[in-house]
Amino acid sequence: MQKDLLKLLDLSSQDILDILDTADQMKYSQKHGLDHAYLRGKTLAMIFEKNSTRTRVSFEVGMYQLGGHALFLSGKDSQIGRGEPVEDTARVLSRYCDGIMIRTFAQQEVEELARHAAIPVINGLTDFSHPCQVLADLMTIRERLTRLEGLKLAFVGDGNNMANSLIVGGLKCGMDVSVACPEGYDPDERVLAFARGMSGPRFELTRTPAQAVREADVVVTDVWASMGQEEERQQRLRDFSGYCVDEALLSQAKPGCMVQHCLPAHRGEEISAQVFEAHAQEIFEEAENRLHAQKAVMYLLMKG
Ligand code: CP
Ligand code: NVA
Question: β-strands 176-180, 203-206: how paired?
């Protein structure tokens, strides 16, 4: 494993599988009341420059369950919001804490933080990627369908942080990945270059949602306007028309296919209320698995 978890592009397929196996063990230990306080006495600093419910709660609860402590640093209230250089924040936190989780806008900021920090840095979402979420998604899919290799994952919607991470994570785990995005909303070029250079699993980018979901085992979607894009919302609602994951679209996928959504969801936009409720069990399992997957990441990076 690397020192940090900054993006799935940095991880080998084996690294991802190791995290998923450890996550399964964490879940088992938690459910069976087995002692797994592996990070006793350790502290995680959590920097949030964007809103969060799941990421904040699952990291904080996860750290507590591992016997450690997590502290919340809001971008607004800390000196980060007043422009203290990221390399100084990195060096200061390295002297108090054992790990840093950061949610922010630019991937560059997370990479720079990691470069200057002596302790592990975990990406809790940037505009470019959401690795912790996709680890939880892969865990949930494997839990339900018993494997990843050879399955088809379809993503319908914006080529955003979720799309970028799902493409990389899915392909690295041997899944075929098909993505449907409107023109102008493609995934990141670096991710497309990785996907096109991949031998083995198949990758497809299409403008037609029905084509992407054809014979899919798992259909994933995410909001059309991500955090920081609120002003583009009206334009995006127009541009994404026809990209709603509804019953009609799902009828093109494999019968009984799974649906995943990282949440929060906008019913009637990227997903219909009917599809959301029909698949609520696996969507909230996915949310729960954030806890177990991140405990695995923290354990593997911070155990020392
Ligand atoms: N899925 C996810 O990251 O949720 P939050 O924004 O609530 O953390
Ligand atoms: N793409 C969304 C994911 C939220 C968890 C966003 O960045 O806002």
Answer: parallel
Over the stretch 10-58, which tens digit does the pLDDT of each residue have?
Answer: 999 999 999 999 999 999 999 999 999 999 999 999 999 999 999 999 9
Which among 217, 290, 292, 294 is annotated as catalytic?
Answer: 290
Per-residue confidence band for 264, with pLDDT thresholds at 50, 70 and 90: very high
Pocket test for ligand 1, best of 48, 49, 51, 54 (most atoms within 8 A of CB): 54
Binding site membership of 160 for ligand 2 (Cβ less than 6 Å): yes
pTM assigned to the model: 0.98
**Ligand 1 near 206 CB (within 6 A):** no
| Average pLDDT of the residues in 80-100 | 97
In the chain, helix, strand, coil percent, each to 5?
45, 15, 40
Q: Return the bridge partners of 99, or none.
A: 44
